[in-house]
């Protein structure tokens, strides 16, 4: 039963991040990447405090788990999200997220090396097919995204941050409640980005776009979705299933992104992107078949 909770949570998290990615793709045109990371974290902390108070208060956290959660927040959210948003601006929602699926494979490898989670031959085959799909999606000229190489490099860096952060979460969350663990990750990531904003004197610049009511409301809606959907459900998944399986299931995100990018941003999907999506989904299905 607990495993199914983790599986459903991972899929729910993927759907939430798909929605957030499409919306942040639009907001990223007017809000700096670091600014989105900071204000996302700030509003998320308020939502998490409300949830924690409503569910009985904070759990006890050992010093070891506290340090791991802090590192996970700084690496995975403060650094990883900022690089992700910047890459999103350079690549666009559909291409960036499909390319970003490479992170699932990186996480699988790290979970094997650091946590001893074994991979099967079938999983390796599925991962290889998945990577081929990513290559199909990302190759070729894209007129709308002239900074493609910068986006790809930023995507690689954010992948490494997210993967390492996932390992740190898995190590620390065994004896800590999901809301409490999520709060501390967000707290340290937000404080670290705020420090950068203060020292660079960019906080006011980051906040300027949010003075528009429509932009602020859209941003707040997205924060609610990723806080209770993306972050909280991903932590729940890490708690009840392996890092590898949770990461693989989150790779369903592009299926939602391709649909939402069309519905929300009215982006046309090219034949190459569809072919790449089909290949990546085929790889995902092969991997899932090995985890029945």
What does this structure look like?
It is a single chain. By secondary structure, the chain is an all-alpha fold. The chain has 13 helices and no strands. The protein has helices at residues 2-27, 33-54, 63-91, 93-100, 102-115, 121-138, 148-172, 178-200, 203-207, 213-240, 243-250, 253-265, 271-289. The relative contact order is 0.23. The mean pLDDT is 82.
Output the keywords.
13 helices; mainly alpha; 0% strand; 82% helix; globular; 292 residues
Question: What is the fold's blueprint, element by element?
Answer:
Layout: H1 2-27, H2 33-54, H3 63-91, H4 93-100, H5 102-115, H6 121-138, H7 148-172, H8 178-200, H9 203-207, H10 213-240, H11 243-250, H12 253-265, H13 271-289
Helix pairs in contact: 1-10, 1-11, 1-12, 2-3, 2-8, 2-10, 3-4, 3-7, 3-8, 4-6, 4-12, 5-7, 5-11, 6-13, 8-10
Radius of gyration over all CA atoms, rounded: 18 Å
Q: Indicate the percent of residues in helices.
A: over 70%
Mean pLDDT: 82
Number of strands: 0
Q: Which sequence of SSEs, written as H and E, runs from N to C?
A: HHHHHHHHHHHHH
Query: Which range does the strand content fall in?
Result: under 5%
Q: What distance separates the N and C termini?
A: 14 Å
Derived structural class: mainly alpha
Q: Strand count, sense and closure of the main sheet?
A: none
Poorly predicted runs are: none
Number of H/I helices? 13
Question: What is shown here, in short?
Answer:
By secondary structure, the protein is mostly helical.
């Amino acid at each position: 039963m607990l495993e199914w909770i983790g599986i459903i949570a991972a899929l729910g998290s993927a759907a939430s991040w798909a929605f957030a990615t499409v919306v942040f793709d639009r907001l990223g045109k007017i809000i700096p990447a670091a600014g989105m990371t900071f204000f996302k974290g700030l509003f998320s902390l308020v939502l998490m405090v409300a949830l924690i108070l409503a569910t009985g208060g904070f759990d006890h956290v050992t010093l070891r788990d506290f340090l791991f959660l802090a590192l996970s927040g700084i690496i995975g959210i403060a650094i990883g999200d900022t690089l992700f948003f910047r890459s999103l601006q350079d690549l666009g929602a559909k291409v960036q997220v499909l390319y970003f699926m490479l992170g699932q494979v990186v996480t699988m490898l790290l979970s094997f090396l650091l946590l001893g989670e074994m991979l099967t031959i079938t999983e390796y085959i599925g991962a290889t097919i998945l990577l081929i799909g990513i290559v199909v999606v990302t190759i070729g000229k894209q007129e709308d995204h002239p900074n493609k190489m910068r986006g790809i490099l930023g995507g690689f860096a954010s992948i490494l941050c997210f993967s390492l952060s996932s390992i740190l979460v898995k190590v620390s969350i065994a004896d800590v409640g999901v809301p409490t663990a999520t709060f501390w990750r967000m707290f340290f990531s937000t404080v670290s980005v705020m420090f950068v904003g203060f020292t660079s004197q960019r906080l006011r610049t980051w906040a300027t776009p949010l003075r528009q009511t429509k932009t602020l409301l859209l941003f707040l809606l997205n924060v609610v979705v990723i806080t209770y959907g993306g972050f909280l459900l991903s932590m729940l998944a890490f708690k009840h299933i392996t890092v590898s399986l949770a990461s693989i299931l989150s790779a369903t995100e592009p299926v939602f992104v391709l649909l939402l990018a069309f519905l929300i941003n009215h982006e046309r999907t090219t034949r190459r992107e569809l072919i790449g999506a089909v290949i990546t989904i085929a790889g995902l299905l092969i991997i899932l078949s090995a985890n029945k």
